Amino acid sequence: MIEAKNLQKRFGPIVALDDVNIKVPKGLTLLLGPNGGGKSTFMKLALGLYRPTKGEIKLLGRNPWKDANVRKNVGASFDPPALPKFVSGREWLSFLAEGKGVDAEEEIAKVSEMFNLEAFLNRRIDRYSSGMLKRLSIAQAFIGDPKVIFLDEPLANIDFDSVAQIVSVIAQEKEKGTSFVVISHIWEPLLPLADYAVVLSAGRVYLAGRAGDVKEGLENLFRSDKLSHQHTRVTNEEKQDKEPSASNESLFNKVPRRKGEKSRV
Question: Where is this region: Disordered (predicted)?
Fold first, then answer.
């Protein structure tokens, strides 16, 4: 599903990923590690939002940087939520559905039911609570029945009931054949669903394998302070980004706006 060969990503003098060689199979993969370890950078390289400095990465057998069409088969949720401010949640989901060439009303109804969005879909996004932003951000990843869904910290900063709901949705969609790559510091609820696990630390692969085979290693690793001694050369990948990213402002300049309203991000 995802294959990286000699993959490196630099932001100026800072090396975010270095010599990553890995094959991520279909199913659900947990992408774990300390803050700044390279997880979000790897995700954005796989999505074609960053260009590799060296090496290559393929998603579904294609180069995501050169072949933008591969993104039509992919959904993504970012942390913090990458959402426009001055449109409603309904308008934003409709925009994404149209971009994927699927029926907007059907898709909005589907994800609204999955994540209980209906009560605030017509509200402008800048008036959402943090919980609403989280739910909308995750819901956007499921628009268009993608083959692969990337979720960055889907279980962070939400209550227990919401954790159970999101894990249930992931389980149901996985059963239908959807593959997932999930970045999470709260990984225990997802471990029973996981097929594969990767730990990135200091921009390198620290541990990788079938989830069942590495379960004990994961538990021991995160109970100990082994990773805490491997401080990454990147303290905040997102702030080091010097390239335009379709997950951020460059994409929002294209979203629908109400008549007479200027672009503001």
Answer: 229-265
- CA 247: distance to chain centroid? 10
The Cα 218–Cα 226 span in angstroms is 11
Task: Determine the residue type at 56.
Answer: E
Quickly state the pLDDT bin for 215 (edges 50, 70, 90).
confident
Is it true that the peptide bond before 84 is cis, omega within 30 degrees of 0? no
Report the candidate in 80, 81, 82, 86 with the shortest Cα–Cα distance to residue 124: 86
12 pLDDT higher than 60: yes
In angstroms, the CA 106 to CA 231 distance is 46
Q: What is the DSSP letter of 68?
A: G
Give dist(CA 47, CA 10) in Å, integer.
Answer: 17
Task: State both tokens at 25.
Answer: 């199979």
CA distance 240 to 76: 21
Q: Return the CATH class of domain 2-83+148-252.
A: alpha beta
Per-residue pLDDT tens over the stretch 107-161 = 999 999 999 999 999 999 999 999 999 999 999 999 999 999 999 999 998 889 9
Identify the DSSP state of 208. Answer: E
- Packing angle, helices 130-140 and 104-115, rounded to 10: 130
Spatial separation of the C-alpha atoms in residues 111 and 93, rounded to whole Å: 9
Long-range contacts at 109-116 (CB < 8 A, ≥ 24 apart): 110/142, 111/139, 111/140, 111/142, 111/143, 112/139, 114/139, 114/142, 114/169, 115/139, 115/165, 115/166, 115/169, 116/165
Task: Read off the pLDDT of residues 228-259 as tens digits, 9 standing for 90 and up.
Answer: 544 434 444 444 444 433 343 333 334 444 44
Which DSSP string do the residues of 165-220 spell out, in sequence order?
A: HHHHHHHHHHHTT-EEEEE-S--GGGGGG-SEEEEEETTEEEEEEEHHHHHHHHHH
